[in-house]
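Protocol step 6 of 9: fold each sequence in the batch and record its structure tokens directly after the sequence line. For illustration, a two-sequence batch is reproduced in full.

Sequence one:
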Amino acid sequence: MPAAVCGLFAVLLGLPFAGGSTPGAVDATVAGWIADLSPGVLRALVLPTEPAVVIALGVLSVVLCLRAGRRTDAALALGAPVLAILLTSWLLKPLYDRWKNDTLVYPSGHTVSLVAVLTVLVLVTRKAYVVVLSALALLAATIGLVGMGYHYLTDVVGGTLFAVAVVLLTWPVRRPEPARSAG
């Protein structure tokens, strides 16, 4: 159910901006809040979306799965983010046709790649500190992406929702093992 809700919101959020190139009211407000941050700070905040970081996090997820003997999860840890990225680049961006600086921006591919691997890492580890660190990385990346002018806030939110939806839709639901009968 959460996957379907995230996917639906990602689809609906982009509709008002389809075919356009202007920010919405919330986009403009948030961009104004962070407009005074220095370019150096903004570049540092975008760091979590860099391919080297995203790939390293993805490899970490695969390695953790393999070390735990979870081969299917290792394949999904690799495949789910790739699927999310491909669907974003080849289907959603052309479909929504939202532009900024001569680039298709909805949903944010930077965000989809980061959030997909972070979602997998959360599912693989099931640790609260991974959830907190992931949220902080996403917050930093959001400020950086908007502040550097790469994306509008709605692009980042749409990318987040879509990435979570794809990963959750592809990830198997863990069922507790039934208790052994005593008799």
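Sequence two, same batch, same settings:
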Amino acid sequence: MRPISDQDFNRIIERGLSDGTGLLPRTGDVSIDETSNRVLDNRTPFIYEVERSRIDIVTSRAIRDRAFRRNVLDAYDSRCAFSGLKLINGGGRAEVEAAHIRPVEHGGPDAIANGLALSGTAHWMFDRGLISLNDDLTITISRHVNDLEGVRSFLQASQRATAPRVAAHRPHPNFLKWHRDNIYKH
């Protein structure tokens, strides 16, 4: 943008309003008028119920264990393994998700050792291969991340994931390797 003089502004306004008529007539016949360049505006009736075509779709997807979320959140004390945040909403529900390390659609089981408790942002980055875990639970950040310092500041200062309280619930190295080999963007 650039400033314009008062004189230029006034000329623009005068030329835009020079015909002396209102922009939208309130009375009279609205038709195509060659001299005023107005367009006929026919109203169409408002149809509030529309018959829509329907198609039947049969899908096939793996059944997920409903207890997976509860078990993973319990293992991590409802705390994000990457950021360390433990946020409980007004309804008493933890704002953390149970993420599969090896996704169900790729043969991953609903086992605690194949799960991580992650915040929505961490889950999104993990599923898109922007972050991953080494076997010692150090967090690795992809070179494809566009805000490296922002991601680092989002993660725990140790740059390590929090391990579950029970050693048997730790992320299994086979699942972590699968994620690094198939999802993580090196």
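Proceed to step 7 once all outputs are recorded. Observation for sequence two: The two ends are 43 Å apart (CA to CA).
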